[in-house]
Amino acid sequence: MNVQTIMVIGAGQMGSGIAQVSAQAGFRVYLNDIKQEFVERGLAAITKNLTRNVEKGSISEEEKQAVLSRLMLSTDLADAKDADFVIEAVTENMAIKTQIFSKLDEVCPPHTILASNTSSLPITEIAAVTKRPERVIGMHFMNPVPVMKLVEIIRGLQTADEVYQLTEDLSKQMKKVPVSVNDFPGFVSNRVLMPMINEAIYCVYEGVATPEAIDEVMKLGMNHPMGPLTLADFIGLDTCLYIMEVLHEGFGDSKYRPCPLLRKYVKAGWLGKKSGRGFYVYN
Length: 283
Ligand code: CAA
Description:
The chain is an alpha/beta fold and 283 residues long. Helices cover 48% and strands 14% of the residues. It has helices at 13-24, 36-56, 61-69, 94-107, 123-127, 161-173, 189-205, 211-222, 228-235, 237-251, 260-268, and strands at residues 5-9, 28-32, 71-74, 85-88, 113-116, 136-141, 150-155, 177-182.
């Protein structure tokens, strides 16, 4: 199978990043979301990134224009009829994802592969709402997508080997490093990362140290590029809480209980960088 056209569903931080690396890899890309203003915002973020690359000299102005010319904006899921490969990157909500996959299954040709960028939800369950579970797979990119090398590829229970192979090849074409992981809550990345972030939040909650001190310990002591609380703000505290809940419910183990302070911040609307306030204040 020869992939020419990719549709990315969800034009937020992750979706626009995925659309950018897909277009940079030479694919025709539909960037889809429910409202025109959302896809336009996604395109503006991509344009800004590419302009910065031109200024730094890592790409030419012609390359930037060529990448942009491969991007098409869409607010209609039915456009997926032209796609060979779809990557869903909408909010972490099983009901919304299954609704989208069920619709995609209706409109896409039989050869189309349906991938989800979910950060923790079961691929097997998403696949089960389609009549093509063998062509459904997890393709978990990291934020910021244009910079981070990893793509965690998650096989659902019924994912076909050829679909896995093609997804791995596609990731490499996007200049990413694919790593194969089985379908368990949080996969590997978030099963290891989120309890660390949650524990850092417990350190704030219990008064062990200030957010600044905790971040400094992890940056200077463990060589992490960002401290765990800065990273939590960057990912979004609502997303962090959601993933902890998936781990807690999925394993039924109290070691994954979300910190009450994380719940409180999310209830207050302190969602991190995107809302202007989390563990830190952003202007
Ligand atoms: N989009 C595109 N490029 C970006 C970017 C963005 N949002 N942010 C930074 N960059 C680029 C910069 O342009 C710069 O490029 P050059 O080297 O070519 O100049 C490079 O990244 C480094 O940026 P900076 O010098 O500004 O800053 P930095 O050295 O502190 O790096 C960082 C920024 C790459 C984000 C780094 O801090 C980092 O690696 N942080 C940790 C990120 C991380 O852990 N991500 C995973 C989150 S978990 C997740 O995504 C999974 C999930 O399911 C929740």
